[in-house]
Every structure is written in structure tokens, then in C-alpha cells.
Amino acid sequence: MTVQPTATGPRNQVKRARASSTHDTKAEAAAAGRDTAVERGTEHVIKKQDGTIGEKNTYPRSRDPRDIEG
Questions:
Q1: I need a labelling partner for 66 at 20 to 30 A (CA). Which of 12, 45, 55, 59 fits?
Q2: Where are the beta strands (DSSP E) in 1-70?
Q3: 70 within a domain of the structure (yes/no)
């Protein structure tokens, strides 16, 4: 699940599929994307306006492949 900025507003997208939802604000899109990622047990990626990754979380946390404290 990825939150991507677009000209018409932030959208949630699963892998390279069509947008699963669109929102007026990035915060709304991130919250909806987080909920969907938790339900599906997937990784949630929030991208910045320039397309770089701003935040990345794995759900559930126990599936996170990294062993980094903090």
C-alpha cells in the first residue's frame, strides 16, 4: 500500500494497480492506507511530493525483516 501525491490529491495504491482510494489531504490518505495495510498485513509506504520515500512501515510489526532498534 503506497500513498502517492498526485495533481488531483493524494491517493492510495496497491503495488502497480489502480488507485484504491483518493483523498483531499495527505493525512487522510495516510490514515486510510495505514488501515488497509494493517488489514492486509502488508507494507505501508508514504511518498513525498518529489516521489522519494518519506515513511515505510510493515504490518504486523513482527513481519518486519529488519532487526533495528528504535
A1: 12
A2: 2-4, 11-13, 19-22, 43-47, 53-58
A3: no
